[in-house]
């Protein structure tokens, strides 16, 4: 009997010693789980921010604006325009605007051999620019023109128009004498248009991979 009672006491003592250890282990792992959740949330936020930045780079007409900034001084004769220069400047703006609209309807895909093919979206499917065979009709239908394409083209065109209106050479060529109110409008409109356009591009992203941004899948 005495040996049995000693065994019971030893077992109770052993259980009492184990309980704090289990509690300590549970309390030690809880902060680790919280820290992991915080890290994963931060990583998700950073990934979303990087994706939004990539969408902006894809949708904003950065390349066309660069070409416009290079050719604008040549076409406008550094702002000292005559009739020929005004025609050239107008053609430059029209060409850049058409290029921006066109690029918003381009896309790309990888063919069976792994080569990237650039296409133009149509209402029924797509048109392969280089004349190579198109993908299967079921796949081609997924590239057709959508309403979001017109929104992206319109906003990109508005951003470019705001930059073109704010250009000093264009200003000197087409409207050299400005009132104070007009100058204030030309100062604020490009900034406001850029902010609104960037916000819409982030809220309504596109899955297209047009010229300059080829598909990786």
UniProtKB/TrEMBL annotation:
It is found in: Membrane. The chain crosses the membrane at residues 87-105, 147-165, 185-204. Residues 1-20 have a biased composition (Basic and acidic residues). GO terms for cellular component: cytoplasm; membrane. It comes from the Eukaryota. InterPro entries: DMP. Its main location: membrane. Belongs to the plant DMP1 protein family. Residues 1-35 are annotated as: Disordered. It is a multi-pass membrane protein. It holds the Pfam family DUF679. GO terms for biological process: endomembrane system organization. It comes from Carex littledalei. Keywords: Membrane, Transmembrane, Transmembrane helix. This is Uncharacterized protein. Residues 24-35 have a biased composition (Low complexity).
